[in-house]
Amino acid sequence: MKNKRLLAACMAALLAASSLTACAGGKAASSGDNSGKTESAKASAGETTTGAAKDTEGESPKGESPKGEKTVLTVWHTWGAGPGTDAMEKVVNMYNQTNDKNVEINLQFVANKASGNTQTMDKLMASIAAGSPPEMALLDNFQVATWAQQDALVKLDDLMAASGTSFDGIYDWARSGSQYKGSTYSIPYNGDTRALFYNKDLFAAAGLDPENPPSTIEELNAAAEKLTIMDGSTYKQVGIIPWLFAGKPIYTWGWNFGGDFYDADANVLTIAKAENIEALQWEVDVADKFGGKSFVEFAAGLGTGAQDPFVTGQVAMAVKGNFDIANMAQYNPDLNYGICPIPSKEEGKHMTWAGGWAFVIPRGAGNQELSMDFMKYILSDEAQTVMAEDSASLSPCKSVSEKVFGSKDNYKAFMDYISTAKIRPPVPVGQMLWDNLNQVLDSALNKKDTPENLMKALDVSINEELKKLE
């Protein structure tokens, strides 16, 4: 935590210094130019310009280029190859071909450091501090508060108003994730939620009704016991591993035990709520019931992709996201499975949580009005429909998600709860909290301390960090 505070302090100092000379980044189509020409000289020579502009007061540069020339806006992202990247490239190409601003969007992959299931773009932070950021970047939306608190992002409210960009018709979880202390810092691009996937054939073989999956934690426990098959000391088949896949974040089960993790009015993280502790204790109890240390070690050795234990039939039930539907089709198209709401402690109190990615404008970037034109397009029905259909990601726009997924049976569990989905606390210590909750889970499963002690200790330490940033 001390290292994170030091990094934040250094970031703030660098930003303060760089704000005196900050210019827009973004390479022209012909990168690697070391000619030393100024932007105006390049324009006179007929070269593509980046439209760099000063932004020392947080105002919105015009980003205008000489008539007839393309203004290239660079977007950094951390996504590898796959349907999501393919869909984003398609959306960008559509904008490049149809916009009337003579703008070309240039997507650039930037290697990053992974942290749990999230990603931090270290290169972006360095570029902001140096005063040479790209015009835009794609971030995990729950990290926006962390970047905003460090004064690393441009407030978008004025740009949105000037361009006629509106959040009308988007889900509350998408709106909340894009805002920090009443200001908007990102434009949501996609979304995802979680549900319980279960193997219908394994249910039938165990004498369970494949059309009546567990709805409560009590029913989940009973089904897991029937679905777990041992061959001596070997796990031939497991009913459920609560912390596998999208079940790993303590949020998943804490909310379904009736807990919560943030009091927005008081700006206090509520990690030590009794329901959250009870949820973690339940996960430990499940591990103990099915072998304790050996069960935890078995879970740690399971694979992903084609070796995903749900895909192979080793695990009968697992919490997964809508993004996993494509994996099922790719790796085991004949898998007979169902999708239902995550079981809750109380009947009918099911809860899911939403994530997603969003576009931001880094502090010091030029061409902010042109960037907002692209970001406005990102929220259009045309762009969102392509994103949703091609990537199988949910749309932050209600009408698009309903149009694309509303009639699909395998999306029913996601669509039924998307409107009430929770989000991870939108606080500047969000990434720190995510990492520490994962550490708490690991410590609890490995008997380093009790769930109660671990959660209470984290509650104290994380709120101390949050108060330092108020």
TrEMBL record:
One GO term (biological process): maltodextrin transmembrane transport
Gene3D superfamilies per record: Periplasmic binding protein-like II
Keyword Signal: yes
Keyword vocabulary terms for this entry: Signal, Transport
Listed Basic and acidic residues bias regions: 54-70
Pfam families the record matches: SBP_bac_1
Positions of the UniProt region annotated as Disordered: 26-71
Family, similarity comment: Belongs to the bacterial solute-binding protein 1 family.
CDD domains assigned to the protein according to its UniProt record, in alphabetical order: PBP2_UgpB (cd14748)
GO molecular function: maltose binding
GO terms under cellular component: ATP-binding cassette (ABC) transporter complex, substrate-binding subunit-containing
Protein name: Extracellular solute-binding protein, family 1
Signal sequence region: 1-24
